[in-house]
Amino acid sequence: MTDTTRWTVSVSRNTDIAVRSYLAQRGMKKGDLSRFIEEAVKWRVLDQTVAEARSKFEDMDPAELDALIGEAAAAARQPVA
């Protein structure tokens, strides 16, 4: 992390103890908390983004969705001219 922003966050005492214990059990140090939080936030953002995308297609026929995905994958595989 070369370009960082400082956050001030508040968590419950139980969460603090659980996370610090988890990191300590794996031999991680105090500075690893920032990396752990950043990774957790990235995964949560990805999870929420996928859930939103899935919800937009939930009423689509599965066969139609498979065809749409196939078309998108084929287009992505085309060489750039």
From TrEMBL:
Residues 3-78 form the XACb0070 ribbon-helix-helix domain. It comes from the Bacteria. InterPro entries: Arc_rbn_hlx_hlx, XACb0070_RHH_dom. GO terms for biological process: regulation of DNA-templated transcription. This is XACb0070 ribbon-helix-helix domain-containing protein. It comes from Sphingobium psychrophilum.
